[in-house]
């Protein structure tokens, strides 16, 4: 992020607005993708999202000003939202509640490579080819996925309707049905608070490490693996633990571990430990908890009303990335001389997540 700021001659806060410009439409667009896919099918919805994403990524690479980049990032967020909603919806189309959690754990194990490896890959592309190379790389990946889905993907939603007006009425009613379910609301908030903590860290720690703690940009990407390493272990463990402990227990246990990670992350700077390692290592414990809880809470949320799996995934996405956008904004407005303000944001979010997990446990349906 600091490198793009220097390229356009703008402040760090302005650069962070490009991240928020992605997250806000990414969250809001998911709200619509889910209902549309419930009524009109997963395949056309996914292909539409991928097409928007590829074109927007190319526009990002072609940007000649921060204003143009932010505008392109808005459309990039709109396009990317379709893939996230469709992954959760398609899994629920194919599997029951417990098997969905295990499938999502496997998918998440792969997906964790993105935030873990992106700084290193992005840093390499930037130093070798310029900041535009990262967006061209994303456009290439999107194009490959689009072609693969055109050739290989089959429709998984077998309950879609054919009446256009009736479809839109059913889509709107689905949102009302879900937000009246206490368990669903608790699961969705849990997702939001867990994700908000991780996104707050991704947004804030680069600035602290590079601008305040003196870490070189080419070292930063590799150091980030210290903080994300716990997620690899957590997702791998979730694949087999879910079958033994059940979805509901996994949510509570994972959220509690994430809270412990957030507490440790806060305790170190409060004790005066202000080093790059202190700003990184405790997040590995947080990552374990997030990885244990996340697949189960996603599966639980989309299983409350299986006929509205896409709509449920959409609301989850709105809450998840809406919370992430607010957390990112909060981090951007706080001072960055140390990672203590960032630690407070992460800890508060995880305390709220624990409350949501307890409410979800009490309102839980049977396994």
Map the helices and strands.
Layout: H1 2-8, H2 12-40, H3 42-61, H4 66-94, H5 97-111, H6 113-129, H7 132-152, H8 164-179, H9 182-212, H10 217-245, H11 247-270, H12 282-303, H13 309-333, H14 340-362
Helix pairs in contact: 2-3, 2-4, 2-8, 2-13, 3-4, 3-7, 4-5, 4-13, 5-10, 5-12, 6-10, 9-12, 9-13, 9-14, 10-11, 10-12, 11-12, 11-14, 12-13
How would you describe this structure in keywords?
367 residues, mainly alpha, Growth Hormone, Chain: A, 14 helices, globular
Can you walk through the features of this model?
The protein has one domain (about 1-360): Up-down Bundle (Growth Hormone, Chain: A). The chain is globular. The protein is an all-alpha fold. It has helices at about 1-10, 10-40, 40-60, 65-95, 95-110, 115-130, 130-150, 165-180, 180-210, 215-245, 245-270, 280-305, 310-335, 340-360.
Short description:
By secondary structure, the protein is mainly alpha-helical. Helices cover 84% and strands 0% of the residues. The chain has one domain: MFS general substrate transporter like domains (Growth Hormone, Chain: A), CATH 1.20.1250.
Percent range for β-strand residues: under 5%
Give the helix proportion (percent range): over 70%
What is the terminal separation in angstroms? 44 Å
- At the fourth CATH level, what is the homologous superfamily? MFS general substrate transporter like domains
- Total of domains: 1
Question: In terms of per-residue confidence, which ranges show pLDDT below 50 for 5 or more consecutive residues?
Answer: none
Number of helices: 14
Overall SS class: mainly alpha
Question: What is the string of SSEs from the N terminus onward?
Answer: HHHHHHHHHHHHHH
C-alpha geometry:
globular
Name of the top-level CATH class: Mainly Alpha
Largest sheet: none
């Amino acid at each position: 992020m600091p490198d793009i700021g220097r390229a356009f001659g703008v402040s760090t806060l302005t650069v962070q607005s490009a991240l928020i410009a992605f997250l806000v439409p990414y969250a809001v667009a998911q709200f619509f993708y889910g209902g549309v896919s419930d009524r009109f099918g997963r395949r056309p919805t996914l292909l539409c999202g991928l097409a928007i994403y590829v074109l927007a990524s190319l526009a990002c690479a072609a940007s000649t000003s921060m204003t143009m980049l932010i505008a392109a990032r808005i459309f990039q967020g709109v396009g990317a939202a379709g893939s996230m909603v469709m992954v959760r919806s398609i899994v629920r189309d194919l599997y029951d509640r417990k098997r969905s959690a295990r499938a999502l754990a496997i998918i998440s194990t792969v997906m964790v490579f993105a935030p873990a490896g992106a700084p290193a890959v992005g840093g390499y592309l930037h130093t070798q080819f310029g900041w535009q190379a990262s967006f061209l790389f994303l456009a290439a990946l999107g194009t490959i996925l689009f072609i693969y889905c055109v050739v290989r993907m089959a429709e998984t939603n077998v309950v879609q309707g054919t009446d256009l007006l009736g479809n839109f009425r059913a889509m709107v009613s689905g949102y009302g049905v879900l937000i009246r379910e206490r368990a669903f609301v608790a699961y969705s908030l849990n997702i939001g608070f867990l994700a908000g903590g991780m996104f707050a860290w991704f947004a804030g720690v680069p600035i602290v490490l590079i601008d305040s703690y003196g870490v070189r940009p080419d070292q930063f990407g590799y150091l980030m693996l210290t903080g994300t390493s716990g997620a690899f272990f957590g997702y791998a463990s979730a694949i087999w633990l879910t079958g033994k402990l059940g979805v509901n227990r996994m949510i509570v246990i994972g959220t509690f571990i994430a809270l412990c990670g957030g507490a440790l992350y806060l305790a170190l700077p409060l004790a005066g430990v202000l080093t790059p390692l202190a700003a990184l290592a405790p997040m590995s414990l947080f990552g374990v908890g997030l990885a244990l809880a996340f697949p189960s809470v996603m599966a639980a949320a989309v299983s409350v009303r299986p006929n509205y799996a896409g709509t449920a995934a959409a609301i989850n996405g709105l809450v998840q990335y809406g919370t992430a956008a607010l957390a990112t904004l909060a981090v951007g407005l706080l001072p960055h001389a140390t990672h203590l303000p960032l630690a407070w944001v992460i800890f508060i979010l995880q305390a709220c997540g624990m409350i949501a997990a307890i409410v979800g446990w009490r309102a839980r349906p049977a396994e």
